[in-house]
């Protein structure tokens, strides 16, 4: 690596962490567009890129391929989402071992959503049925691998396992939990070994600020990263509300719907999201985790509004400049 390469990817001091969530392509034909999006996001020099695992792990193989490729060939830390709902313990162990064997050292441990359309669904007997149990399993598999070979132990010492968890600053409507119950859950996840937390999306800065204040008072000391969704597409906001129970402000929806063009709608949403992001940074958030839905432009335009994009124009990106895009199929 040359000095120019080092300068290109060095993170400026005092910059809040910047990270993105992406979803593996659902079909092979979508892979080129997906990797183009990843390339654009990497150009912002994020601290990490999280890769979703899909409902009940339905895109397990694709997620593993995407994360493995990022580990091997991209200048960014990938975080692998990991869910456990609806799987036997043996299945979850297999997935964890696959990721660890691929060199993955960072995970987002999630219980996952129960299967849709199954109101009588019950957790798998003897399975891994919570994020806390998943944290324990990850740590157990890491210990087993380190004990099996001194090389694994050395790699583990040089690159310790990092486990993130999710948290819901206004309570989790899907689980029926309140904000205080989410704080209690976060304390349990912290005690189990969580390294940091990422919040569900929210639309008001005080939602984040008040949650963090109460969590700190209760004894939560791990970093709590603010999860942000660019509010540029009213259809997506409503769809996300159906899935998460987190509804966007009516005033924001009205403004987006009244826009006379896609460009005006994009500008309104970008500005609103940037204002929210700036407010949570001012409130002490350590960084921003942007839910991209595989759309680079809204995420990058939000960062541009915040003056957090600092890669020099026309600087080559290793993901494009190398043979990565033409390499291993996604």
TrEMBL record:
<dbReference type="GO" id="GO:0106312">
    <property type="term" value="F:methylenetetrahydrofolate reductase (NADH) activity"/>
</dbReference>
<keyword id="KW-0560">Oxidoreductase</keyword>
<dbReference type="InterPro" id="IPR029041">
    <property type="entry name" value="FAD-linked_oxidoreductase-like"/>
</dbReference>
<dbReference type="Pfam" id="PF02219">
    <property type="entry name" value="MTHFR"/>
</dbReference>
<keyword id="KW-0285">Flavoprotein</keyword>
<dbReference type="InterPro" id="IPR003171">
    <property type="entry name" value="Mehydrof_redctse-like"/>
</dbReference>
<dbReference type="GO" id="GO:0035999">
    <property type="term" value="P:tetrahydrofolate interconversion"/>
</dbReference>
<keyword id="KW-0274">FAD</keyword>
<dbReference type="GO" id="GO:0071949">
    <property type="term" value="F:FAD binding"/>
</dbReference>
<comment type="pathway">
    <text>One-carbon metabolism; tetrahydrofolate interconversion.</text>
</comment>
<dbReference type="GO" id="GO:0005829">
    <property type="term" value="C:cytosol"/>
</dbReference>
<protein>
    <recommendedName>
        <fullName>Methylenetetrahydrofolate reductase</fullName>
    </recommendedName>
</protein>
<dbReference type="GO" id="GO:0009086">
    <property type="term" value="P:methionine biosynthetic process"/>
</dbReference>
<comment type="similarity">
    <text>Belongs to the methylenetetrahydrofolate reductase family.</text>
</comment>
